[in-house]
Amino acid sequence: MKRLIEKGLMFGNLVLVDSPAWVARYNRALEKLTGKTTDLTEFHIDLAGHSPEVGDALGDLDYLSPKGANRQFILLTTEQKTAPLLNPSISALRDILRRFIVENESQLLSLTARDAVLGEIEDHVWELATPADLAAVTQIKIIADTTGRHIAEADRMAALIERFRTEPGGWYDDVLIAQMITQAKSTGDVTRNPVHLGRVEFPIPDFHAEAFGGVYMIRSVPEPAMIFSDKTQLTNVPGLLSIAIEDRNLVAGWLARNGLAEPIATAHGTDAAAILRQKIDFVLVDAANRMGLDQGDGSRSDLRRAAARMGERLPPEIAGLAALLRWVETGGDWPVIDSSNPAYFHAIRATAGPARDVINMLLAEMAPQDVRNLYILNKPLFYRLYATWPEPKKEYVANLLSREYQMDKQGTRAALFGGEPDMRPPDPSPSTSGGNAVTGPWGSASSMRLNEAGLEGPAPAGPWGRAG
To answer: Where is the segment annotated Disordered (predicted)?
Structure first.
């Protein structure tokens, strides 16, 4: 992992805490949350105030994420909004905490000027005993205050002022007036300098959870589903379709019925040829390292020579991706590629919409040879797989990401996945009974039916033929 850290691909863009004032504030907040402090005089923190150095010094890398409890956070500055969130248990947490900071930035600027803001990210679920408990996670609430309880004290002062203004005889209530005077000594004039956080609750219809081997929860579609990375954890939950990620045909059919994916080759505003060539390179690098073949410096010419040495062992994904590349560059007949083809999930991306990022995260797991997508969309899985790769592949991947992604993150994401998703929910048209069938990326999928056992009836037409 040292190579990734040196290139800014791991623990990158963290906030440096090196002033005595910040360290003191962090320790006050840390002691209040965990009962511990750190002797470090310099360390880095992520979006939620978690520090790898502090975790290492305390001998507890999960010191702000105690098991069986809500994730805690420490804010020293609103600049943490641009930092990554390390080891999120739910993929939506980074976006929610960033939005909380942005939407309350003026208040948080005032609060962090004199103290640290600390709190919890509450999901209203006491315990995740089974995968079915994830269905109860529907919104996240941010509970925050300073170590000096400035928000709570300001709320108490505001309540006293409201009583003074509205209660009959409040103007003559000596006890109430005395309480206000005492409270004002610690809060100041909250009518001129109000201290109140705005939006603190955020719905999360779609997310990925690390628990139970990895579960994708998608509910902003006509046919809500849970998709399990670990088939042994597969659990039937009322109102949700349960699918194992290894059941590729079922996943593909569900994506098509709900209009959640589109072929890269025909995606609007995409340089499909460049993306497909890069995907072919990634597949060849993976195969060369598995076979112990020399990949040279990973250049396209070196990879083609390695492919020639593979002979009959050439990865099956190559044929499908090469056929798509020929169609993009020269036209001709549309390649017949269905979900049983290894190239299928390399050749699609999520459509714009509320679930786009979670669907792209799912597709990255289903086509892990594309290391760039895997790094951008599914960092926890990327880091786990990276630790198992041989040195030549680690070197190739680290150099590629630092050269082609770090230089222009926003531009790369837009080129690969399109613009920012439309956060409006889709029209709730029924997809399996009555009304009009949902139109997927390749037309109507009304020929697909569902029952309790899974798919029945004729399979829907995929982007390149029947879906097995």
So the answer is: 415-468
